[in-house]
Amino acid sequence: MYLFDFLSSNAMFLSGAFLLNMFGGRMMFQDIQPYLSKMKFLKYVFIFCLFFIATKDINISLILIVAYVIFMQFMIDFKNQKEHSEGKSEEKNNDAKIDSCIDLLNDIKNTSQVQS
Predict the structure, then answer these.
(1) 100 lies in a domain?
(2) How far apart are CA 48 and CA 55, in angstroms?
(3) Is residue 22 part of a domain?
(4) Would 60 be classed as within a structural domain?
């Protein structure tokens, strides 16, 4: 715990975290975001720096970053389940439309054969 107390009161560490936060914030919302999305660890470091700058306490920042990771994973899983269920209902609708088209074409075919 002594290390955490030392880091949270060290001006150089606070300045470095602030600069890393500023650099990371700009990167996340500009051109490099597609590349950053593949580097989840770096993204979490930037978010940790944001929490640390806001709280000035490493322990609370660690708790917040763990809560953030869990929450985001929950949201991603929820989104994937929703997209998966919507995809199934869309497939069922498409299958029903295709079946109705086939029935219509068969009716037209039968009508044209009866007229001939």
Answers:
(1) no
(2) 10
(3) yes
(4) yes
Report H helices in 29-57.
Answer: 33-36, 40-55
77 CA to centre of own chain? 9
pTM above 0.85, yes or no: no
Range of the domain at 34: 2-91
Q: How many domains does the chain have?
A: 1
Q: What is the dihedral of CA 10, 14, 15, 21, to 10 degrees?
A: 160
> CA 65, CA 52: separation in Å to the nearest integer?
10
How far are the Cα atoms of 1, 37, 76, 95, 98 from residue 50, in angstroms, in the given order? 21, 17, 22, 49, 52
Instruction: Report yes or no on 7 lying in a domain.
Output: yes
pLDDT digits (tens, 9 = 90+) for 62-98: 888 899 889 888 888 888 887 777 666 666 777 777 8
